[in-house]
Amino acid sequence: MTIRPILIHPDPRLKKKAEPVTEVTEAHHELARDMLETMYDAPGIGLAANQIGVMERLLVMDCIKEEGADPRPMVLMNPEVTWASDELSTYEEGCLSIPEQYADVERPAEVKVRWLGLDGEMHEEQFDGLWATCVQHEIDHLDGKLFIDYLRPLKRQMITRKMQKLKRERARV
């Protein structure tokens, strides 16, 4: 397993729509292992493949945060929301590609998602709470959308300028 570098906004790959996975291969198993290790190391609760420069519709997530609780790593390929509740919820979201920046984002409180698993089978599950927010956030990544795209233009520009400065500082090191 390898911890992979996470792309920082603005990077054009973060704004591109990822390509569907057509066949589950050993490379997808390896990618999923690397992504989970990268996500846990960051630390984060979700990571989309395009955040590490792989333009395929694959995401990983694990929203178990309770001390001592067993982790629940999930790998979703070609995920799609098949149902969303009318009820909305607001979470303060962050992103591994936009470090140390947070903002309230309103999304459906519950969603049903269908996806292809590493076992080659289709799966479907209904998510609520943090899980619902996380899966929607990661599917947005696969569609080339960032959580800051939900913000007012001025706030979005301010965060983008901070990320450009961060990238310049990291490039000097």
Q: Can you put this structure into words, describing what you see?
A:
The model has no long low-confidence stretch (mean pLDDT 96). With 173 residues, this protein is an alpha+beta fold. It has a single domain (12-172), classed as Peptide Deformylase, CATH 3.90.45.10. The protein has three helices and seven strands, in the order αβββββββαα. A five-stranded antiparallel β-sheet has the order 1-2-3-6-7. It has a two-stranded antiparallel ribbon with strand order 4-5.
Q: Major sheet: size, sense and barrel closure?
A: 5 strands, antiparallel
User: Given this structure, which CATH class is correct?
Assistant: Alpha Beta
CATH level 3 topology? Peptide Deformylase
Give the CATH architecture. Answer: Alpha-Beta Complex
The helix/strand order is: HEEEEEEEHH
Number of domains: 1
Number of helices: 3
Q: List how many beta strands DSSP finds.
A: 7
Shape annotation:
globular
Q: What amount of the residues lies in strands?
A: 25-35%
C-alpha end-to-end distance: 26 Å
Low-confidence stretches: none
Average pLDDT value? 96
CATH homologous superfamily grouping: Peptide deformylase
Helix- and strand-based class? Answer: alpha+beta
Strand order of the largest sheet: 1-2-3-6-7
Radius of gyration: 16 Å
Helicity, in percent?
25-40%
